[in-house]
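Please, why this fold?
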Amino acid sequence: MKPYIFLTVAALCLYACDCDELEPTDPKLPDLVVQFISQPDVDCPGGGGTCVTTVAVEIANIGDGDAGMFNVRATMDPSAMVVVDRTVSSLAAGSVAMVVFMSPAGGNCYDPDCSILVVADSNNDIVEENENNNDRLENFFG
């Protein structure tokens, strides 16, 4: 009777592969930050109650990995709670996306000042290097 040798997949890999390849590696993760919030622009085409506030925001991925789809939320004048959400389809590592927010009619941010809070990945859909640097608050004085 001939002897049979049974090798597991792991044993074959150790025989055929460089063992260093089996070491776990750190995944490359994105890190989303709000880099810039522009001065808000308010347009009131029909007088009071028709005002629309527009603001542009730069979202940067300062991490080593790409980010898939995520939500960005702008709260214009948090005491008035004018909340606008936008979706970014993806953001590669090292890239910047410009996101424009427009309030619904009647959303004049200035009363007399305007505070804007922006949160990148506001639904926490993306696993990031740092989950504590996703927001930025800017105060603008009328």
About this structure: The two ends are 94 Å apart (CA to CA).
